[in-house]
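quick q for whoever's on today - can somebody do inverse folding on this one?? i tried earlier but teh output was garbage lol. tokens:
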């Protein structure tokens, strides 16, 4: 079975035989897959009237467990955005009734962001939709193939996850 990346690699090998284009065979496929995954995620989130960034914040709070709350700093760490961006996102989610701000009992100047019941329901529903989309993308891969692919991708991504900033 030939795909678009095979054609792209063959063309580069023909045009630039002096270069080793082997990385394209893996990373061009990862890039193309990422675009398909992005489309599938947007579809899953839009079915629940969420933007991808809203899903990220809501599910970070949902994963925190009862009472589904985190400090803005903890949300920054999990979503990899700046503090100004996070403040704006919390404001927008609070206006929609998906999160609420509460005083932090351990820090008089601090706040906690808590998921509302509606926010929890939207996070849960959109996660179920996302998983259905992702299962479709994985298609006919066996459980063993999925496990192997996950392990190989972990080898590639783990060093990036351990880089500060």
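ok took a stab at it. sequence:
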């Amino acid at each position: 079975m030939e795909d678009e990346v095979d054609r792209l690699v063959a063309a580069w090998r023909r045009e630039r035989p002096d270069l080793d284009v082997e990385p394209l065979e893996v990373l061009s496929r990862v890039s193309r897959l990422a675009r398909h995954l992005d489309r599938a995620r947007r579809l899953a989130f839009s079915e629940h009237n969420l933007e991808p960034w809203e899903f990220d914040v809501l599910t970070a709070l949902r994963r925190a467990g009862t009472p589904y709350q985190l400090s803005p700093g903890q949300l920054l760490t999990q979503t990899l955005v700046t503090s100004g961006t996070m403040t704006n996102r919390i404001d927008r989610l609070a206006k929609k009734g998906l999160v609420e701000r509460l005083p932090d009992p351990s820090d008089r100047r601090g706040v906690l962001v808590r998921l509302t019941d509606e926010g929890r329901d939207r996070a849960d529903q959109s996660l179920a939709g996302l998983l259905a989309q992702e299962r479709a993308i994985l298609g006919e891969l066996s459980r063993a193939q999925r496990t192997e692919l996950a392990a190989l991708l972990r080898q590639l991504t783990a060093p990036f996850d351990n880089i500060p900033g």
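fwiw The mean pLDDT is 93. also The two ends are 41 Å apart (CA to CA). so keep that in mind when u check it
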